Amino acid sequence: MTAPARVVLGVGGGIAAYKACELLRLFTESGHDVRVVPTRDALRFVGEPTWAALSGHPVSAEVWDGVHEVPHVRIGKEADLVVVAPATADLLAKAAGGFAGDLLTATLLTARCPVVFAPAMHTEMWEHPATRANVATLRERGAYVLDPAVGRLTGADTGPGRLPDPEDIFAFCRRLLAARRGDLAGRRVVVTAGGTREPIDPVRFIGNRSSGLQGYALAATAAARGAEVTLIAANTALADPAGVKVIRVETALEMREAVFEAAAHADAVVMAAAVADFRPAAPSESKIKKTDAEPEPIRLVKNPDILAELCARRREGGADAPGVIVGFAAETDDVLANGRAKLRRKGCDLLVVNQVGAGLGFGTPDNAATVLGADGSAVEVPRGPKEALADVVWDLVAARLPGRTAEVGRPPVSAS
């Protein structure tokens, strides 16, 4: 954990406001200085004395209290992190619209630090087009809007809209605070994620099990550490990471074109996507019908090796080649031997080697890997959240960027 931070805990007017007391406890017991800024409606659920006693600071929802200290400007400007929990539909709308009618919304407008919203509302409110548009707007501006949990809501209702567990919110915020060092500030990085699909006919394809979770974790972590991030996503169903430019592709050929365009003048490229090795030579233009006869064999051709091409361009002295190139290798057996052979063959700087299957890798929230370096190094990353592996990868990348040093081998920042 980095040095104690100045945290603003905004509390919206929802029944889940009582859970924010636990979130406040997690922050204060970790040594952080927390200022609670509730809305007027939030104080109808949890009173001002409770927040003041737990935080050690006076509490108000009004811009008129302590006017001589200009709190509506000072609180946001001085904060290292603002987290709003619960973030109601009304509060998300006001934040997206730039309203400043109370101390919390004014604080959100003046904050120049990471801002996290943890939504809590009924399912119908969360799924309403207006709320979805407000969430998209906030994410485009760089705010972090967590997805709500699924479970029991107020009354007998059940569905998406439940406030995420306070420990999960705290873990996410802890990662952002740990990334305050901004060691990737001013750097342009490209990350690929997901799995390509190679069409057999208009309705069928050759694909793989990649969900894109690791690539998205890499993109979000790089953004939190100050980088300008382009994420090239192949066939994922994940929400766009806050503050990240997302380019969507489907096939390996589309991925290749997008990577070479985005990689021009990039400081680093991390190829986390699972790119198909082969594609049908002649996809059918219409759906292949099932008949009594055996189907015709599908002839495959090789897809381009994007990682190897990228490394070859750099060896040839391309002026627009990235400074650091990272590959991924998903293996089922002889993991390290296959990984070292691939590292030599591809020519990248780092290769993240992980075993897939047995509950690891594709589609899971956690991962374990060994990061091999072209310099002979090997960093073991024990099983943990994919965000923790992402932090290790960026630590190693930062250490190899021209003109920049980093703490190689420091303990990974865990999100749990």
From TrEMBL:
Molecular function GO labels = FMN binding; metal ion binding; phosphopantothenate--cysteine ligase activity; phosphopantothenoylcysteine decarboxylase activity
Q: Which reaction does it catalyse?
A: N-[(R)-4-phosphopantothenoyl]-L-cysteine + H(+) = (R)-4'-phosphopantetheine + CO2; (R)-4'-phosphopantothenate + L-cysteine + CTP = N-[(R)-4-phosphopantothenoyl]-L-cysteine + CMP + diphosphate + H(+)
List the InterPro entries: CoaB-like_sf (IPR035929), CoaBC (IPR005252), DNA/pantothenate-metab_flavo_C (IPR007085), Flavin_trans-like (IPR036551), Flavoprotein (IPR003382)
What does the cofactor field's note say?
Binds 1 FMN per subunit.
Which keywords belong to this entry? Decarboxylase, Flavoprotein, FMN, Ligase, Lyase, Magnesium, Metal-binding, Multifunctional enzyme
Domain (Flavoprotein) spans 6-175
Family matches, as Pfam families = DFP, Flavoprotein
The record, for Gene3D superfamilies, names: CoaB-like (3.40.50.10300), Flavin prenyltransferase-like (3.40.50.1950)
Q: Tell me the ranges covered by the DNA/pantothenate metabolism flavoprotein C-terminal domain, including all copies.
A: 184-399
Q: What does this protein do?
A: Catalyzes two sequential steps in the biosynthesis of coenzyme A. In the first step cysteine is conjugated to 4'-phosphopantothenate to form 4-phosphopantothenoylcysteine. In the second step the latter compound is decarboxylated to form 4'-phosphopantotheine.
* Annotated protein name in UniProt: Coenzyme A biosynthesis bifunctional protein CoaBC
Q: Source species, please?
A: Thermopolyspora flexuosa
